[in-house]
Amino acid sequence: MTTRPPSAPDPSDGEPHYLGHRDRLRARFAQGGAEALPDYELLELALFRAIPRRDVKPLAKALIRRFGSFAEVVSAEPARLAEIEGIGPGVIADLKLIEAAGHRLARGAIADRPLLSSWSAVLEYCRATMAFAAREQFRVLFLDRRNHLIADEVQGRGTVDHTPVYPREVARRALELSATAIILAHNHPSGDPTPSAADIRMTRELIGVLDPLGILIHDHIILGREGHASFKGLKLI
After folding, report:
1. Which of 119, 122, 155, 181 could cross-link to 143 by cystine, CB 3.0-4.6 Å?
2. Is 179 exposed, middle or buried (0-12, 13-18, 19+ CB in 10 A)?
3. Number of domains within the chain
4. What is the CATH classification number for the domain harbouring 140?
5. Could you give the 3-state DSSP secondary structure of residue 185?
């Protein structure tokens, strides 16, 4: 029987294979940024901290299969994330932190500047905060006379295809904030941002309540996975 010298490495004691993969993935991200990685690999990077001692590639791919994209994974409701085997509270907390950071960055792009001259940033902010939500939500951006943002508030959350909106509540809040204009935004979880008949009717009701108060609706934006629709662009207001 042949014995190895004590100094010879035992292959069975080597580092787990995924550690080298993690180093290579980090290096690619450092060199090329997020654009150098497909969604599942970017998600792997996000999972490294919460799951330090396991190959997370199968888990990342399972998440993408279930939800569709990196953005949809981090935007998914915690209860739905928890349905995936291997996803615990630590992973969910990290994913929701990434989502919150994205929202904060997008909001920073519209802070302290006239929103009508930063329209692409407004659209990006609305997309980041709403486009991938599983349920409808109705958001109002309240603006001052210089069209600077006073407040951004979710006025209602609903089902997968309906959110109750109360025009007089929107008007009351606008008066409380001394807003002179607003931008409306809501999402379509179906993915299709085309305005429905109910969306058009509700917007006209809001105009009817706000116009006598001297409060202008600049636009109503509908967000979906497939893009966005602008009431002003469609000449609906």
Report:
1. 181
2. buried
3. 2
4. 3.40.140.10
5. strand
